[in-house]
Structure formats: C-alpha cells, structure tokens
Design goal:
With about 325 residues, this protein is of the alpha/beta class. It has 14 helices and 5 strands. Strands 1-2-3-4-5 form a 5-stranded mixed β-sheet, sandwiched between helices. Helix 1 packs antiparallel against helix 6. The radius of gyration is 21 Å and the shape is globular. It starts with a helix and ends with a helix.
Length: about 325
C-alpha cells in the first residue's frame, strides 16, 4: 500500500520537475546536460514488457528533443523486488526516449538509502546497475529564506530530511516563509508537511499560532487523508458505540483515526501491531494525549514507547 509520506514526497517532485535534475547535479554531483525545459511524463514503463511496471515519476529534460530522462522512485523501506524492477525502468525509458536515462531513488531513511545504493548485478558481465540514491545526508540544508523562496519544494524536502537535527528551526522558518508566499494549494500543503516533519524541539520554538496537538490542517491533501482516518475510526467507534455509548464510541474512533493518519503521513505505513494497540485504547484522556504526541514524536519507536508507558503495557 502506498503511504501518505510516499505520496507527499512524490508530489514535491511533481510540483517542481526541475527538483530531480537539480538534486542529481548539485547534491549527488552527477553531470546533467544543459536544459531549458523539464516536463513530467507518463510513468507507465510497461510498453516494452508483458507486465505492468509503473515508476513513481518520470521527468524529461528537453531543450528541443529529450537529452536526459530521470526515473524518480521514492523508497521508504527495503523491497528486494525493486532491485529487479529498477534496471527495467531505466531500460524501458531509454528505449522510449532514445536518450540517456538515470534512476534517482529518494530514500528518507539512511539505512534504506544504504541498501538502495548497492550495485544490482544484472548478469551482464562487467555491467552492474547502480542507482543514484538521495539519502537524508545528501539533501541540502535550506536555511536561507531567499533560496527557500526560489525553490520551496527543496526547502520542504530539507525539513523532511533534517527537521529533527540541530538547526532545524532555521530550516522550518525558511520553508514556512516560502510556503506562506505561495498563492495556491501548494502553500497550505507545504505548511502541513513542515508541521508534520519538523522535530519537537524546533516546533516548540516556532513563532506560529500552531499549538501542539491542536494544529488544523489546511491543505486538501492533508485533510483528505486525515478525513479518511477519521472515517475509518468513526465507523469502528459507531460499531463499538452500540455497546459502550454511541457518543463516546464515535469520539474514540475520531481520535484514533487522527492519530493513525498523522503517524502514517509522518513516518509511512504504521506497523499492524502498533495500529492494533492504538485501536484497542478506550481512554479518551490518553487518546487526547496521544493525538498531540502523534505529530511531535521523533519516530514511530518513540511514539510506541510513550503509548506503552501510558497504558502500562
């Protein structure tokens, strides 16, 4: 299942297609041909094969004709099947465009980035396939508001990669300032993502009307997924409410939905065991505390430890 964090990262690259070649050139120090135009292209790469293969995003650099194609893959966890699919993605796009092609793997987790960097032996002697991998350490730290205004998607990506490190406050302030100047839905979305991805220490210092645990999501993107979580929780709450009181059951369900939706947007897919532990809770006070913790915890492990401490498990 595609997670909310996965979709949010893909959206950053879709909203700013030049972000992919800029990171390949400036962060990974690989040569990129001169280009005047970058376009998002169809990411279905199955035309040359008998199976369906769909990458997360394809961008093409083309002054007149294509000069470079970049397959962008967001990878939140290890998936050994991708080591068979990635070389095919690149080969299929190269056959379609008739130009140079590279694969850019965006891996927010350092361990996943190390895994993704391993050369892929294709069986062709002397020709392993080596993905270009953007791990958190490779993402530039954008603390200059002027740089953030010129490239707001890069500024948001910087918060995602470094929002829990020293100096995160400066990154968040620069990104928020850039997001505030956007006049479309992107601005609200980026504020939501910054709020979710920045660490607790920086969040406490932000001079912003956001209050811990009571932040109101502004973008349709975030509202959609929070609403989905609430609806699932509401349905479970109403079912439980027939036994324990409909109002209390519905309120429990809504809080659980918000907790799980926030965790998924920040950290990716929530482990089944942890989701079950949240859904088993029936104390509204504890759920209220965990609702704020879901957007403050530095990791899923930290959230789970706090949950266990509160319920004595």
């Amino acid at each position: 299942m595609v997670s909310l964090s996965h979709e949010a990262l893909v959206m950053l690259f879709r909203n700013r297609p030049a972000l992919a070649p800029e990171l390949v050139r400036d962060a990974l120090h690989q040569p990129v041909p001169d280009f005047e135009q970058v376009e998002v292209k169809e990411a279905d790469l199955s035309q040359m094969t008998t199976s369906e293969y769909r990458a997360d995003l394809v961008v093409v650099l083309q002054p007149d004709a294509p000069v470079l194609g970049i397959v962008v893959e967001v990878q939140l966890g290890r998936d050994d099947d991708k080591r068979y699919a990635w070389p095919l993605y690149a080969a299929a796009l190269r056959a379609r465009l008739r130009c140079a092609v590279c694969l850019l793997v965006v891996a927010p987790d350092a361990a996943v980035a190390r895994w993704a960097r391993r050369p892929i032996e294709t069986g062709q002697p002397g020709s392993p396939f080596v993905p270009l991998v953007l791990g958190p350490e490779s993402v530039p730290r954008v603390a200059d508001p002027e740089v953030a205004r010129r490239a707001p998607e890069l500024a948001v990506l910087s918060v995602q990669a470094h929002g829990r490190d020293e100096g995160a406050l400066e990154l968040a302030l620069a990104a928020l300032e850039a997001a505030d100047e956007l006049e479309d839905e992107r601005g609200m979305l980026y504020c939501d993502l910054i709020w979710l991805w920045v660490g607790e220490a920086a969040r406490r210092k932000l001079e912003d009307p956001m209050e811990r645990g009571t932040y109101t999501y502004q973008s349709d993107f975030a509202k959609k997924y929070i609403a989905e979580g609430e609806e699932k929780g509401r349905q479970e709450g109403e079912k439980k409410g027939r036994q324990e009181g409909e109002k209390k059951g519905r309120e429990e369900g809504e809080k659980k939905g918000r907790i799980l939706a926030a965790l998924e947007l920040r950290f990716g897919e929530v482990p089944r065991e942890l989701e079950g532990a949240v859904r088993e809770l029936d104390d509204l006070d504890v759920l209220s505390e965990l609702q704020g913790l879901a957007i403050r915890a530095p990791s899923l492990e930290a959230f789970e430890a706090e949950l266990r401490a509160r319920v004595g498990g």
